[in-house]
Amino acid sequence: MAAAPRRRAPAPRPAAAPVAFLPANAAHLASFERYLATRPATTRAAYVGDVGTLARAAGGTDLLALTAGDLRRHLATLHGGGLGGRSLARMLSSWRAFYRFAIERDGRLVENPCAGLRPPKATKRLPSALSPDEAVRLVAIAGDELFDRRDRALLELAYSSGLRLAELAGLDLDRLDLERGEVRVLGKGAKERIVPVGGPARDALRAWLAGRASIAGVDDRAVFVGRAGRRITRRAIQRGFAEWAVKQGLPCHVHPHMLRHSFASHVLQSSGDLRAVQELLGHASIASTQVYTHLDFQYLAKAYDQAHPRAKRARPKA
């Protein structure tokens, strides 16, 4: 029998050409990008990218001619395409910044068409937190090498005092008082707060600081430094926390903010004092702290399900 003729593979489709901006909108974007030149590169890229999304949606319409109704329709289209509330809120913030810039530079535009627009509400996600047993297992680093001691001190302090990533990385020696058991933290908005430091964290910090001075060219101010003696970076802290979680056998990805969440939820579980947790975390509004009451209920519900003889309730049939 003759062999069946081979089918030719279909020719690959040409890649879709990028959507060209209206020349006027391309000029607006270029001017806006120059205006943002002093901003951090990530901020600049996000703002220009978001306004570029609007320029593509506008098609043949000048960005300066768009109305609030046009922007509302474009937001609805993006939402229908799968963008969530948080992404749309960020995008709307970029659009507002662009139109504020345009009002300053172009006399044709008098009002910001973004005024009054609101993104759809984002679904609130509860922050992830470790159980008390998991937190203790994470910080129990047994090694006595210098940088094992540093990492244990970092983990202990993050869990003991609920510090943010930037606060850990930026902590200076003159803000740490191990005799009194407290740390002075410069948080968001340059607001200072004093947070207690627990006994195990103080012990871990003393062990680290005893060896820190042996590092050549060590930074005179920073509490936490790397092998070259310079202040540790935020990225190095994030990477270290994730790696130690794997080494300590935790079943989840651990990041610095998870230890902050764990600190808050465990203090609330023990004390029930939401206002104290707000002060310890440095939240300007108690509304930011109230999310931990949900974590507390989750903990209580889990304990109830495990302990109460009537907890095994039948699930409703679908």
Can you characterise this structure?
The chain contains 13 helices and three strands. With 318 residues, it is mostly helical. The protein has a three-stranded antiparallel β-sheet with strand order 1-2-3. A hairpin with a 5-residue loop joins strand 2 and strand 3. The chain is globular and about 65 Å long.
Write the layout of secondary structure elements.
Layout: H1 23-35, H2 41-58, H3 68-80, H4 85-105, H5 132-139, H6 146-161, H7 165-169, E1 176-177, E2 182-186, E3 192-196, H8 199-212, H9 234-247, H10 256-271, H11 274-281, H12 286-289, H13 291-307
Antiparallel strand pairs: 1-2, 2-3
Any idea what the radius of gyration is?
A: 27 Å
- The percent range for strand residues is under 5%
Tally of extended strands? 3
- What is the H/E order? HHHHHHHEEEHHHHHH
Order of the strands making up the biggest sheet: 1-2-3
